[in-house]
Specification:
about 675 residues, alpha+beta, eight-stranded mixed sheet, 19 helices, 30 strands, about 30% helix
């Protein structure tokens, strides 16, 4: 025995050395000479590189270099032009009266109030039969509401928006009579705005299609009542001289095409919800795009940060052709061009020397797929990647080391446990609140994030101007958790595990195996819930399997995940009840009519204070409902070797600005496309 112990003591350091060398060689993958390129490490392989259907962070990492949107955020998070150089928003509002005479009288009264037109942002008005048409210099509900208040309200016909869902029945509608406007939702149905009583239309449809079945139906219902039609319009003026990576010119037709593909049922973009309120996108001329909305949609501008697709490459092609020929070999307008994708190794990009803002300083960018956090740290320490989103445990060491620059800010993101609300276990709100009291979130922050995080107060991180600072978190209180579970009928059995009606409280908690923080969260949650009599089976999966097989198909009990939110308040895709289908972002199947109303209200309002009020109510209600167990808002921490890069960017006047990399409101990587190596 002693001999074996001695052998072990001798061999153990050697074995460790061998393991380290093996890891080093995996990371090294063949030592590279110092090139004029940026190398980025990414845990996880992109599912594809098509920006309107890709959903992973690794795909976005590539897309930021390859594609452009019409707009982007500047470093202070204000909207700025990218492919668009200028834009304006106007609105046409239409009020419906019961007679043409009442419309004429209303116009006369409005003309007599000409002194107030400037305050109302009103540029013109006209009567057309029973319609009073208002032309406004800005979008929103406030000005038309003030104008409408001038008139005898009994003379105004309210609008009812009738939703008509169809399947395997040919039916169509046209504007005319008391039908004020129509809009077709792909091939799934119609929305028809009716001035006055909608019952004749609904009754006629029910009479013509009296026996709906699951396979064949026309089913009408009143969706909402409105005071008038408010139709905002954006006019984008596009940048001249922009070319796709294959040399073809970028035009307004590309914008029009991208919208059609976002709405295509065959393409099935998960971002479709951001564009469903658009009535029409049209190319006025090669450098002018007009976007008309069915009703006010306040995130309308930020939605056009979406990457634009090349019409000349993709138009007329099937989704299968896209998958084979474009989704893995994209063509964009961005500062770098796609070069190659070696599966489970890297995506390589090369400089676009014809980039419209000027050629980048780097010759290329490599986004390396690295299997685990240990390897990604080794890659950084051996300079195989140029920066690292440093793990919390390592922050203190890098902060003290003069060889490195450390960048830190509270991230616009949060981590959570999502409960699948289609599972019976999680359908009781009292149970979900019990789970929130049972999990020791302060310990998660202390021991997993080393204090570099804050407890989450819900769906909006605290730095957002619309976040609710008054939401009270569910404190860690195991006794309260046990009390709530007892009241809900989940009683401990002889084995200590809770059960109700013969069914044990046991579930699977899944997450991706390459994220150390999520794995640790799952382990601590498993331990906390065991203390109150709940069995948790933690299961880990490779990212593509985790997303494709379980999350997108909603085949899970509970999951540890996170959202990187950006800076927009519109979370319709995550929380609206219409977004619960397979592959959609409301994969926990949360449904609350009041949340649906608030989401719709927030995205239709342009008044900042009204948006804030809606968002704060929304955050409070969702937190109280606990479809997620909201855990933490982490600090974004990154480390770089000192004196490796600087920023050299256009100043917009034909010159250049040279400066150190710095933390901005949009993050330290905001100018990443203009980084310049200083260590060659």
């Amino acid at each position: 025995m002693v001999t074996w112990i001695k052998r072990f003591l001798v061999l153990f350091p050697i074995l460790l050395g061998v393991l380290f060398i093996a890891s080093f060689l995996v990371v090294k993958g063949g030592s590279r000479e110092r090139l004029n390129q940026l190398s980025i490490g990414s845990i996880g392989e992109p599912e594809n590189l098509n920006p309107i259907i890709a959903t992973t962070t690794s795909a976005s990492e590539v897309g930021q270099f390859v594609f452009n949107g019409l707009l982007r955020y500047d470093e202070n998070l204000d909207l700025a032009g990218e492919l668009a150089v200028d834009w304006s928003i106007t609105q046409t509002s239409t009020i419906f009266f019961k007679s043409a005479g009442q419309t004429a009288a209303a116009l006369q009264k409005l003309n007599a109030s000409g002194g107030q037109w400037a305050d109302w942002k009103l540029s013109g008005a006209e009567a057309s039969g029973t319609r009073l048409i208002l032309h406004l210099k800005e979008a929103g509900a406030s000005s038309p509401e003030k104008i409408q208040a001038l008139f005898d309200q009994s003379s105004i016909e309210p609008l009812r928006v009738v939703r008509i869902d169809t399947k395997n029945e040919k039916v169509s509608f046209a504007r005319g009579g008391n039908i004020a406007e129509v809009w077709q939702d792909g091939t799934l149905g119609w929305e028809v705005a009716v001035a006055g009583d909608p019952e004749p239309l609904i009754g006629d449809l029910k009479k013509r299609y009296p026996k709906p079945t699951d396979d064949r139906y026309v089913t009408p219902s009143v969706l909402q009542t409105a005071d008038r039609l408010d139709e905002p319009e954006i006019l984008f003026r596009l940048r001249e001289g922009v070319r796709w990576h294959d040399g073809k010119p970028f035009t307004a037709r590309d914008v029009e095409f991208t919208y059609r593909m976002l709405m295509s049922e065959e393409i099935a973009s998960p971002r479709r919800a951001d564009y469903e309120l658009i009535k029409k996108v049209e190319a006025i001329d090669p450098l002018t795009v007009r976007v008309l909305y069915r009703r006010p949609y306040s995130p309308c501008l930020s939605s056009w940060m979406m990457s634009i697709l090349p019409r000349h490459v993709l138009d007329g092609k099937t989704s299968a052709w896209w998958a084979e020929n474009y989704n893995r070999k994209p063509i964009g307008t961005g500062p770098f061009k796609f070069s190659e994708w070696k599966v489970n190794q890297h995506v390589r990009l090369v400089k676009n020397a014809e980039y419209f803002e000027g050629p980048p300083n780097l010759d290329g960018v490599v986004i390396r797929s690295i299997p685990d956090p240990v390897s990604i740290r080794l890659s950084f320490e051996t300079r195989e990647i140029d920066y690292w989103g440093v793990d919390p445990y390592a922050v203190a060491g890098f902060r003290k080391d003069p060889r490195f620059d450390l960048y830190s800010r509270l991230a616009p993101s949060y981590n959570y446990i999502g409960w699948n609300l289609e599972r019976e276990l999680f359908q009781d709100i009292q149970v979900r609140r019990a789970l929130a009291h049972a999990v020791d979130v302060p310990s998660i922050i202390k021991f997993i994030y080393y204090g570099y995080a804050e407890q989450s107060h819900g769906t909006f991180p605290p730095m957002m101007w619309f976040a609710n600072p008054d939401v009270q978190v569910f404190d860690y209180d195991p006794k309260k958790a046990e009390q709530l579970l007892d009241e809900a009928g989940w009683i401990r059995g002889p084995d200590g595990v809770r059960a109700r009606n013969g069914k044990k409280f046991a579930f699977k908690l899944i997450t991706n195996n390459a994220n150390e923080e999520r794995k640790d969260i799952a382990t601590l949650v498993q331990s906390d819930l065991k203390r109150i009599g709940i069995e948790v089976d933690v299961q880990l999966f490779e990212w593509a399997v985790f997303i494709g097989k379980y999350i997108n198909k909603k085949d899970f009990d509970a999951t540890v995940l996170g959202w990187s939110m950006g800076y927009d308040y519109d979370q319709y895709q995550i929380w609206h009840s219409s977004q619960t289908g397979a592959g959609r972002l409301n994969f926990v199947s949360y449904k609350n009519p009041e949340i649906d109303r608030l989401l719709t209200l927030a995205r239709s309002e342009f008044d900042r204070e009204k948006i804030k009020a809606s968002c704060r109510d929304l955050q409070r209600i969702i937190y109280e409902d606990q479809p997620y167990l909201f855990i933490d808002v982490p600090q974004s921490m990154a480390v770089m070797w000192k004196d490796t890069f600087r920023v050299k960017r256009p100043d917009g006047k034909g010159g250049w600005i040279t400066e150190p990399i710095r933390e901005t409101k949009a993050g330290f990587r905001y100018y990443i496309q203009w980084w310049e190596r200083t260590d060659l």
